[in-house]
Here is the input.
Amino acid sequence: MSRNYPWAAAAKESTASLARTAASGLLAILLSLIAATAAQAQTTITLGSKKFTESYVLSEIAKTLLERAGFMVTHREGMGGTVILWQALLNGDIDAYPEYTGTLSEEILKSPAVMDDVAMRAALAQRGIGMTSGLGFNDSYSLVMRRGLAQELGIRKISDLKRHPGLRAGPTPEFLGRQDGWAPLIARYGLTFASVRGIEHGLGYEALANGLIDIKEGYTTDAKIAALELVTLTDDLHFFPQYQAVFLYRLDAPEKAIAVLRGLEGQISEAQMIALNRKAEEAKSYKVAADAFFAEGSGRPSVSPDGARYRRLLAELPRLTMQHLTLVAISLIAAILVSIPLGIAASRPGVATEFILGGVGVIQTVPSLALLALMIPLFGIGQLPAIVALFLYSLLPIVRSTAIGLTSIPASLREASIALGLTPGTRLWLVDLPIASPSILAGIKTSAVINVGTATLAGLIGGGGFGEPIQSGLQLNDNATILLGAIPAAILGLLVQAAFTGLDRIFIPKGLRLKTSPKR
Here is the structure.
């Protein structure tokens, strides 16, 4: 028998009312948090830059202006060449980056005819991309030589090279494959060379200065042309189009941010850009060069002392270490989880063996830079595509070592385990895998060490890690910055090697461990 109490009904109604009020309050808080997050996301701008000094400097200038306008700005430095930056912009992984009209027309839009600004803007708008007007300078391609050699051979213009087929050329890999690059250029001028080797832009200048090559392509605003006493050959057949510097940006970027970028239109002369490039290379800092752009005429010093530069570099070490460890750890763990089952399958006779080993072998033959570039359309830029690429590169050593370890088990041991009445699964876990463990761990160790080194390439696509300072230092010819990435990467490789030596004692049965011969 139940009774109805008025106070109980009132309490129940009051409780329900409180619940509704609390739910409404929580919903309001949640919506405000979402709105705040969205607003924060709208005020965060990500800039990209190509892997040469001028692109770094221009993005640093834009970063300073955007920060002054109240935006939070991330600069993904030295992400690689045109294809990587353009794809990242299309995917929304970056909001803007500096580009050149000649590259837009010839390489990105692949126009059969020279395009004016109106035509380029219309074509870009169809892809959701906008373009500023020129920043004020033209940075065209050119061919450069050592001044002394050019004077000795009487070479002043590109067509003069026809008389000297014994010269050695060292264009950049990107220039070798461009529509406005090496092959069309030498076809237009009818040139031949004794050797043609692709060399990274900054290293190519060093090779040219040291006499390892005789000619390469350069940019007309490169500070190294004057610093290394090089001469620019006249493009007498007018092969190269105009390369006016501009900023490309996403049309869905905040209007205020776009206005900031447009504020740079016509503000940088060719002489200024050369001076800024020189400042970056002398000070070993792109930020110092950007500061110099704003400090001109103010009398303020723009070069930071070496001590401050080294402190700034060391302050980056914890961040870089964590990023590098993340790349290596996630990719390696995923590879172990996938590779050992594949290795087990590959250890059994049949078509699957050749298919598995052949498949992971083919992946290993894909050049690392190409694999990274292929990941960008699928996963964008940053750590994810780098982790996927490292995972794929880690498969072969582990799969092969697992298969070899299992197939090397003596037949007598297999027969003994069968005679004991062990099921296939039990034999695998209690007999086969423990006996094969030295080989399996050797493959994992190989993959781990290789991953530590290969992960430095993540710096090319904004993935961070020790590759970031290595790429930056190569452009600045700054050994301190290069070593900031190279030395920790080497130390991490040694630590990984030592860690796996310790793991041998845990996972390898005592009777199977390698032992040194006793002393007599």
